[in-house]
Each structure stands twice: as structure tokens, then as C-alpha cells.
Write a structure and sequence with these properties.
Blueprint: E1 5-7, H1 25-34, H2 42-45, E2 50-52, E3 56-60, E4 63-67, H3 73-82, E5 88-90, E6 94-98, E7 103-106, H4 109-122, E8 129-131, E9 135-141, E10 146-152, H5 155-163, E11 169-173, E12 177-181, E13 186-189, H6 192-202
Antiparallel strand pairs: 1-10, 2-6, 3-4, 3-5, 6-7, 8-12, 9-10, 9-11, 12-13
Helix pairs in contact: 1-5
Length: about 210
Amino acid sequence: MTACQQEFEVIEEPSENESVQAGSELTELLLGIASMDGSADDIVDQSSCTLIILPATVKVGNTYLELTDEADYQEVEKLLEEHPSASVEIQYPVDIWKVNFHRYTVKVEQELFAHQNYCKNGGRFISCLDFQYPIKVSEYNIETQRSSVTVISNDQDLYETVVALSKERIVSFVYPFNLIDADGNILEVTQQEELLSKIKQYKGCK
């Protein structure tokens, strides 16, 4: 996973209406979009809050399966259809990604549940809307009065940019850019008020 690219430019401090500030409504919505999507392996770990890093081994009924890529989840689904009373048992230890893109080694089932419960208590997923990357944000440090343009290439870049916001460090998006919904529709965004409005329309979607 690569870091953002920065281009230093002369940029005026963004106004309150243009800036993304720590603790704002827009910040929380952006984290909902940018959080890691752990839904691909829900048939195994029963949660979108975590994503098992492959390869991993599971037991379905009396059958052991070595999972090496996401296509193998279809084999898990097939076995569950053939044996409705069977359950999926993860063979520990496994490594997982959490919604904040942090990696953990999980040694027992209770540890996995703890990671998932923490996410459920604080998670605000917006899984049916995404940014069409790359996008750019202008970063401004009030303390140093230094500014730069950062290229955001993926959800992790956006997540880390948002969680790093503070009273001294604010950002504003460089418009226009596009959002993409779950049906593949392209939504052009030209200003911050429009961005907030569009994201709120998808808040709580599945």
C-alpha cells in the first residue's frame, strides 16, 4: 500500500465552507466511504468489519479448504449449500485487516469477535458509494502556514488523510471530481456543499 503523492504549491487558507475539518459531519461521512470494505469474506468471518488476509484455512463440516484468493469463497458457499447444518470454522492463527487499514494477527476466535465488536460500535459504513480515484486535496497547516496539494489514489490514502486532520491541519478538495455508486452511476461533484448532499443521500445504504 503506497503513500500519497504531494505537490507543494502556493495556496490560500481555505474558507470554512470549503475546508474539511476534524470532527465535522463531512469528516464522519468521508470515513464511512473510505473505511476498508471487509465484505468479500463475510461468508467466512460473518462481518464486514474485518477482512481475512489470504491464504487461510477453514473447515466446513468435515472438509478443510485452503483459501488462496476470493474465488475460493464460492467453494465455501457450495459446501454450505450441500450441508446446510455445517458451519465455517476458521483455522487460527490468521492475519486480518480492520476498517482502519491496520493489520493484526488473530490467534483465537474471541480475538476476532473483539475486533469485530469494536468496529460495530463505531462503524459508519457507506458501502454503496466510492470516489473515482485519483482525486486531489489541498492541505493547509495553520501553524506553519504551509500548503500543498496531495494526490489521493485509493481509500486508504483518503482514510489516512481524514484521520490526520486537526485544528492546525485542514484540507479542501480540488474540484471537480466524480463519485461512483453501487450501480456504476457517475456523480460529478463541483463544490463541497454538493459533496455533502450527495453523500448524505447514500448514508445507511447497504
